[in-house]
Design brief:
globular, alpha/beta, Rossmann fold, binds uridine-5'-diphosphate, two-stranded parallel sheet
Length: 320
C-alpha cells in the first residue's frame, strides 16, 4: 500500500512510519518540523520505500503518486507545544485537516484522523466512553487544541457523510515512549529527564490529577487495526491503567533505579500551563477491544524502562 502520514516526523508519527515500513508499505511522511524532528526518521531516510517531505499541510497537502491511505497526525500535541503555537494549532486542525481530507478524496484513499482525549475536556463522566460529548472550555487556553481536534472530527464525519469517504477517528489518550521531545513539557519527558539528571521531580498542584499512560507501540498497533477496520465512529485508544500524577512520579523514580536520588516536589507552574487541566482521565476501551480485538500489552514498568533508556542515550549524545 502507499500510505501518507502527516506529522510523520513527530513522536507518534515516526513510530507509525517505522511500523508501516516494517509491514512492507511505501510511506510518505510530511512534516513542518515545528514540534517534530527529522532526527526521528533519520534512520529511514535511505530506505527505498520511505520519503520525507518538509511542508506545512496548512498551505498544501499534495503528492503526485496514488495513495491507499492518508493518516493525519500533523499537530502540536503537548500543552506546551500548542500553547506556544496557538494559531498554528487551530489552523492545522482546521485548514490542514481539510487539505488532508481533500487529498484522500481525490486519491480515493481511506483517511484516519488522529484525535484526542482532549475532545472530552475536563470530563464530568468517568471513565470516558466515545458516546460522551465532553466538557470543553471553548475560550480557555487549551481550547486551541481541543476545539481544533473537535473541528477535525466534525469535518472528517462531514466528508464521510457527503462523499462516502472511508474515514476513521482515533481518540488518542496519553501516550509515551522514545522520541518524545525532551523539552515538550509533558509529564513523561519532564519526569524522566528530571529522574535521569537526579533533579527534583515536579508534581504540579497536589498530584491528585489522574492520567493513564499507553506505550507507543501499543498505540500504533491500535491505530493500524482501526485504519484497516470498517469502523467510522470514533474509537478511544489508550491504556486504562489510571493513576495519580503523584503515583506516576513514584513509578518513574522507581524505574530510574536505585541510583536516582531525585526528590518528588510539589510545584506551582505558570497558571496558563495548568488552566483547565483535566482532573481525571481514563479511557473506556470497550469498543476498541470489541471492534478491533485490541488491548494494550506493554506494562508501565517495561515502557518506562525503554523510555528512560532512550532519554539517557539522548542526553548522553547531547553532551558530545
Ligand atoms: N504535570 C506535572 N508535572 C509536570 C508536567 C505535567 O505534574 O512536570 C501534570 C499536569 O498538570 C497534568 C498531568 O501531569 O495534570 C499530565 O500533563 P501533560 O502535560 O503530560 O499532558 P495532558 O495529559 O494534560 O495533556
Amino acid at each position: 500500500m502507499n500510505i501518507l502520514v502527516t506529522g510523520g516526523a513527530g513522536f507518534i508519527g515516526s513510530h507509525l512510519c517505522d511500523r508501516l515500513i516494517e509491514e512492507g508499505h511505501r510511506v510518505i511522511a510530511i512534516d513542518n518540523f515545528i514540534t517534530g524532528s527529522p532526527r526521528n526518521v533519520a534512520h529511514l531516510l535511505d530506505h527505498p520505500r520511505f520519503t520525507l517531505i518538509e511542508s506545512d499541510i496548512i498551505e498544501r497537502c499534495w503528492v503526485d503518486e496514488p495513495l491507499d491511505a492518508v493518516m493525519n497526525l500533523a499537530s502540536p500535541a503537548s500543552p506546551v507545544g500548542y500553547l506556544d503555537n496557538p494559531i498554528q494549532t487551530m489552523l492545522v486542525g482546521s485548514h490542514g485537516t481539510y487539505n488532508a481530507l481533500e487529498l484522500a478524496r481525490v486519491k480515493g484513499a481511506r483517511f484516519l484522523q488522529a484525535s484526542t482525549s482532549e475532545v472530552y475536556g475536563d470530563p464530568l463522566e468517568h471513565p470516558q466512553k466515545e458516546s460522551y460529548w465532553g466538557n470543553v472550555n471553548p475560550i480557555g487556553v487549551r481550547s486551541v487544541y481541543d476545539e481544533a481536534k473537535r473541528f477535525a472530527e466534525a469535518l472528517t464525519m462531514a466528508y464521510h457523510r457527503t462523499y462516502g469517504l472511508q474515514t476513521r477517528i482515533a481518540r488518542i489518550f496519553n501516550t509515551y515512549g522514545p522520541r518524545m521531545a525532551l523539552n515538550d513539557g509533558r509529564v513523561v519527558p519532564n519526569f524522566v529527564s528530571q529522574a535521569v539528571h537526579n533533579q527534583p521531580i515536579t508534581v504540579y498542584g497536589d498530584g491528585s490529577a489522574t492520567r493513564a499512560f499507553c506505550y507507543v507501540s501499543d498505540l500504533v498497533d491500535g491505530m493500524l487495526r482501526l485504519l484497516w477496520s470498517n469502523e467510522v465512529m470514533p474509537v478511544n485508544l489508550g491504556n486504562p491503567n489510571e493513576m495519580t500524577i503523584l503515583e506516576f512520579a513514584k513509578a518513574v523514580k522507581a524505574a530510574a533505579g536505585p541510583e536516582c536520588t531525585s526528590e518528588i516536589v510539589f510545584y506551582q507552574p505558570r497558571p496558563d500551563r495548568i488552566a483547565d487541566d483535566p482532573q481525571r482521565r481514563q479511557p473506556d476501551i470497550t469498543r476498541a477491544r470489541q471492534i478491533l480485538g485490541w488491548t494494550p500489552r506493554v506494562p508501565l514498568e517495561e515502557g518506562l524502562r525503554r523510555t528512560i533508556e532512550y532519554f539517557r542515550a539522548e542526553l548522553q549524545a547531547a553532551r558530545f
